UniProtKB/TrEMBL annotation:
<dbReference type="InterPro" id="IPR009057">
    <property type="entry name" value="Homeodomain-like_sf"/>
</dbReference>
<dbReference type="GO" id="GO:0043565">
    <property type="term" value="F:sequence-specific DNA binding"/>
</dbReference>
<feature type="domain" description="HTH araC/xylS-type">
    <location>
        <begin position="176"/>
        <end position="275"/>
    </location>
</feature>
<keyword id="KW-0805">Transcription regulation</keyword>
<dbReference type="Pfam" id="PF09828">
    <property type="entry name" value="ChrB_C"/>
</dbReference>
<keyword id="KW-0804">Transcription</keyword>
<dbReference type="GO" id="GO:0003700">
    <property type="term" value="F:DNA-binding transcription factor activity"/>
</dbReference>
<dbReference type="InterPro" id="IPR018634">
    <property type="entry name" value="ChrB_C"/>
</dbReference>
<keyword id="KW-0238">DNA-binding</keyword>
<dbReference type="Pfam" id="PF12833">
    <property type="entry name" value="HTH_18"/>
</dbReference>
<dbReference type="InterPro" id="IPR020449">
    <property type="entry name" value="Tscrpt_reg_AraC-type_HTH"/>
</dbReference>
<dbReference type="InterPro" id="IPR018062">
    <property type="entry name" value="HTH_AraC-typ_CS"/>
</dbReference>
<protein>
    <submittedName>
        <fullName>AraC family transcriptional regulator</fullName>
    </submittedName>
</protein>
<dbReference type="InterPro" id="IPR018060">
    <property type="entry name" value="HTH_AraC"/>
</dbReference>
C-alpha cells in the first residue's frame, strides 16, 4: 500500500509509518508532499492520506493519527498502547499525559533538524520507535540509577539546589534578545538548540533557565502562547480561513489549533472570531 502525508514530519508522521510497517503492512511505501498537495496526490497515486484534515486517519478530539490506526486495525499489543499515550502526549503538546513525551518531542525535533530529507528522516525515526517499543515491551520497570547510594546522592543534590540561597537576578541581555527573536519568528519552526546557537549560549543552560525569564513558562508553553496571540491577529484578516491560520501559526492541524486556542482563551476559534469581527 502507498500512504501519503504532509512533508517535514516530526511525531505522528513518523510514528504512524513505524506502526504501519511493523503491524499493518511491512512493505508500505510512504510519500511526503506539501500540505496542499496531499489529497490531489493521494488520488493520483492511489495512496491513503493520513494526518491531514478531513480524512479517515487523522486527529479526532484528543486522539492523534497513531490512535486512529490502532483502533481501525485492532492492534492489541500492550506495548503499542503504552507508546500511543506517549506519542499522543508529544504530538498534541500534552506532556502531562506521559513523562516520556518531552523527551520524545525533543529527540524528534532534533532528528528533523539534522535530516532535511524526509525519507532519510523516516528511516532514522524507525530506529527511534523500535527503541521506544523495546522499552515499552521489556524495560518499563528498569531505572537508570540502580544503586541505593546513587538515589541518595541525587536526593541530597536536589535538596541543596532547592534551598540554595540567592536573590532574584535582573533579566539578562540574552533573555531580552531571545524575546525579540521569538516575536519576529513566531510562525517559524523554532527550537532551543537552534536559538542557543544564535545567542551563543549552551542549550542545556538555556533550557534550564528559560522559564525564569519567560512568565514562568516552559519553552513550549511560551511558544504556544505567542502563536495564539499571532492567530488572533490573523483572525482580523477575513482572507484567512481557520485552517490556514492553524498552519500559518505552526499547529499540526486545525483540531490541535482549536484545542490549544480554547485552552488559552476559553472559546473555540470560530466563536472568538465572530466576536472579534463584531467589535
Amino acid at each position: 500500500m502507498k500512504w501519503i502525508t504532509r512533508e517535514r514530519p516530526k511525531i505522528d508522521r513518523i510514528a504512524c509509518p513505524w506502526l504501519i510497517r511493523r503491524f499493518i503492512d511491512k512493505e508500505a511505501e510512504f510519500i511526503y508532499v506539501p500540505f496542499d498537495q496531499v489529497l490531489p496526490e493521494a488520488a493520483k497515486q492511489n495512496a491513503i492520506p493520513f494526518d491531514v484534515p478531513n480524512v479517515q486517519f487523522t486527529h479526532a478530539g484528543p486522539l492523534c493519527t497513531f490512535d486512529a490506526l490502532i483502533k481501525e486495525y485492532k492492534i492489541k499489543d500492550d506495548a503499542v498502547h503504552t507508546m500511543a499515550v506517549i506519542v499522543r502526549a508529544a504530538d498534541t503538546d500534552r506532556h502531562d499525559l506521559a513523562v516520556q513525551a518531552s523527551g520524545l518531542w525533543a529527540i524528534s525535533a532534533g532528528l528533523a533538524y539534522n535530516y532535511p530529507n524526509d525519507h532519510e528522516l523516516l528511516e532514522k525515526g524507525m530506529l527511534l520507535y523500535d527503541a521506544l517499543y523495546s522499552w515499552a515491551k521489556h524495560l518499563q520497570q528498569e531505572k537508570h540509577t540502580q544503586q541505593p547510594f546513587e538515589d541518595l546522592l541525587i536526593s541530597v543534590l536536589n535538596r541543596y539546589l532547592k534551598n540554595k540561597p540567592g536573590s532574584k537576578k535582573k533579566t539578562p541581555a540574552w533573555a531580552q534578545e531571545l524575546k525579540d527573536i521569538i516575536q519576529d519568528h513566531i510562525d517559524a519552526n523554532l527550537s532551543l538548540k537552534e536559538l542557543s546557537k544564535g545567542l551563543d549560549i549552551n542549550p542545556s543552560y538555556l533550557s534550564r533557565e528559560f522559564s525564569r525569564y519567560f512568565e514562568n513558562m516552559s519553552f513550549g508553553e511560551y511558544i504556544r502562547k505567542q502563536r495564539i496571540e499571532k492567530a488572533i491577529a490573523l483572525m482580523k484578516q477575513p482572507s484567512y480561513s481557520l485552517t490556514e491560520i492553524a498552519y500559518l501559526t505552526g499547529f499540526s492541524d486545525q483540531s490541535h489549533f482549536t484545542r490549544i486556542f480554547k485552552k488559552h482563551t476559553g472559546q473555540n476559534p470560530s466563536v472568538y472570531r465572530k466576536k472579534l469581527v463584531k467589535k
